[in-house]
Amino acid sequence: MRTLDDIREEYEFLGGDERYRLLIELGRDLDPMPDALKTDATLVRGCSASVWVYPTENGEQLHFLADSNAAITKGIVALVIAAVQDQPAGAVAQMDVTAKLEPFDLGNQLSSNRTQGIPNMIALVKEHAARIANS
């Protein structure tokens, strides 16, 4: 997965439809998430499409699997995951993910229907990280 800085650099050079294509591409680049992990516990509430986020631990670092049944939404969750991927659980729990995503200006780039679930995606990621950091 590309870093958030690499994605932002590319995103800044693109216009409307090209940005949608980039989001779709990011979603396609996500690690596959097995269907068995797509449960109520991993479902992000409040999204217009179905979105699942599942944390795995790799030593001190968290590695997230994520998926969605909608291409643009899958790209959005990929963007959220790029902000936190392979970071220590404690750091993710304390991270201001919203601030990391501000340069993408998603609220003005995408419809409110597509962006309404972003705070819930971030909250679920941070909840998983806090739970793992405290265990």
Question: Can you describe what's shown?
Answer:
The chain is mostly helical and 135 residues long. It has one domain (4-133): Sufe protein. Chain: A. The chain is 53% helix and 12% strand. It has helices spanning 4-12, 16-28, 71-84, 89-94, 97-101, 106-109, 112-115, 118-133, and strands spanning 51-58, 61-68. A two-stranded antiparallel ribbon has the order 1-2. Helix 2 (16-28) crosses helix 3 and helix 3 packs parallel to helix 8. The chain is globular. It starts with a helix and ends with a helix.
What is the element layout, followed by pairings?
Elements: H1 4-12, H2 16-28, E1 51-58, E2 61-68, H3 71-84, H4 89-94, H5 97-101, H6 106-109, H7 112-115, H8 118-133
Antiparallel strand pairs: 1-2
Helix pairs in contact: 2-3, 3-8
List keywords for this structure.
single chain, 135 residues, mainly alpha, Sufe protein. Chain: A, two-stranded antiparallel sheet, 2 strands, 53% helix, globular
